[in-house]
Recover the amino acids of this structure.
């Protein structure tokens, strides 16, 4: 992979940069895709940001993130659905075709109850998502996040849930960080694509050793994820969308972001 | 669960206590089972420790832990097998009927290669294990340990591997900490028992939030693992062995160990 046409960066990857800076830096580096975290939109008008990104020559790949549907308290579940409707409106204003869902989990109830509430939450969002023309992407999260972040922890579960939603509007986001360990990964990538639900592909690496549950991800090629192998599975399944670099890293966020961006691009060319 | 006949503690749970102290404290508290970590045997004769535990009225449930078979370097794989043979001899000297295997993983190679080497390592140990009358228990580890600790990350994989070993000497260790999130858990517990391979059952809880990858486990009932539900699955499958409390916790190791032991026993009575 030595060209950048399908390279997308998440704004969180270079978190210290405001989105206006990130947009200029990404484009100057030859990047054409950007996935926008909602945090990057604080105190901004999403339509204006969408126009700015378009003028900069960037394609908005997704808005990150909606979800967090489960809660033992029904009022809080309704609040979550309202929050997600606002996220869908933001996505539409940004011209983002996809809202990425981190589905959520409530440790005070069973995973099965959380999964049921995730299904219900997605069903409640579907009419709004369809009206706005924004797709919903279920991102299965690593099992180490099953306590509070997601009760959907394998690609099989995400595929099942997306299938159950019964709408072309609902698909799946494959992130190597969460799924690399899964012995069923190749099979479920194929199934996801056959269902027409392989909506997005996120890349980074698993640092050895990892010291923080959230913010210790690695640049591609520096950890133990067999990234080029997984990319080949995804491409063989027919996916030809953006490869989205999503790195949370307390370490890299403290370094010079221009240098870090250069390293990401080199890593993308040689290790993705 | 309000009786203690099937309660076993791992020596690592009360790590600050030397094994001689742990033995007296466990027995005084009414505990009858002990699983011995190899670290607790340093500078000691395993036969003498075995006699001491027996005199104290404790049944040795297992020796923890062998394994760590994979390595890209064949010499180091041979060393690992030698190490495991010594562990089996220690287990026999202690009168431990089971050696728990944390299978290992080498992040410099694929998980498939590591799994192949785990299979080969177990096959190489089998004759010694049979001669000594010590069983081998494959413990699947949480996927967050797939980088360096184990390429066996689900109960299905452990069952498959134990079945492939083709010997009654090889079975599986079910630890709720590693497996609670798995949607196939009930099914694979049943399968494990039907195969005659459900050798051991480890309990603790998943702390919310967990801040350390290794040593931040919780006492039963204080986290989010549906422990009584999993215990019922294990018992319904026919398991009637010890419930082994295996807690690694920098927090609890810094507290008064007598008080901590009391809390473990209360938790076992009410939340297991």
């Amino acid at each position: 992979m030595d060209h950048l046409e399908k390279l997308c960066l998440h704004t969180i990857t270079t978190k210290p940069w405001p989105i206006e800076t990130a947009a200029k830096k990404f484009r100057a580096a030859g990047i054409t895709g950007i996935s926008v975290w909602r945090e990057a939109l604080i105190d901004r008008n999403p339509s204006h940001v969408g126009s700015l990104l378009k003028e900069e020559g960037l394609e908005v790949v997704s808005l990150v993130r909606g979800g967090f549907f489960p809660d033992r308290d029904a009022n809080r579940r309704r609040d979550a659905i309202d929050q997600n409707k606002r996220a869908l409106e933001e996505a539409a204003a940004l011209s983002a075709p996809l809202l990425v869902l981190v589905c959520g989990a409530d440790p005070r109830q069973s995973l099965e109850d959380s999964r049921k509430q995730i299904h219900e939450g997605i069903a409640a969002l579907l009419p709004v998502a369809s009206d706005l023309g924004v797709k919903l992407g279920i991102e299965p999260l690593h099992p180490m996040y099953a306590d509070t972040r997601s009760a959907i922890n394998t690609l099989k579960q995400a595929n099942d849930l997306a299938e159950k939603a019964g709408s072309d509007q609902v698909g799946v986001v494959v992130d190597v960080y969460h799924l690399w360990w899964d012995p069923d990964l190749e099979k479920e990538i194929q199934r996801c694509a056959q269902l027409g639900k392989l909506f997005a592909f996120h890349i980074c690496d698993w640092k050895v050793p990892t010291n923080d549950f959230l913010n210790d991800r690695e640049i591609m090629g520096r950890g133990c994820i067999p990234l080029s192998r997984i990319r080949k599975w995804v491409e063989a399944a027919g996916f030809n969308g953006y490869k989205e670099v999503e790195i949370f890293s307390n370490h890299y966020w403290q370094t010079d972001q221009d240098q870090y961006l250069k390293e990401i691009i080199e890593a993308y060319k040689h290790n993705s």
In short: The interface with chain A takes residues 107-108, 110-111, 142-144, 146-148, 153-154, 157, 180-183, 206, 208-211, 213, 223-224, 226, 229 of chain B (CB under 8 Å). Chain B is about 45% helix and 15% strand. The beta strands of chain B are 7-10, 33-37, 59-67, 98-102, 135-138, 170-175, 198-203, 205-206, 217-218, 243-245. The first helix of chain B runs from residue 19 to 28.
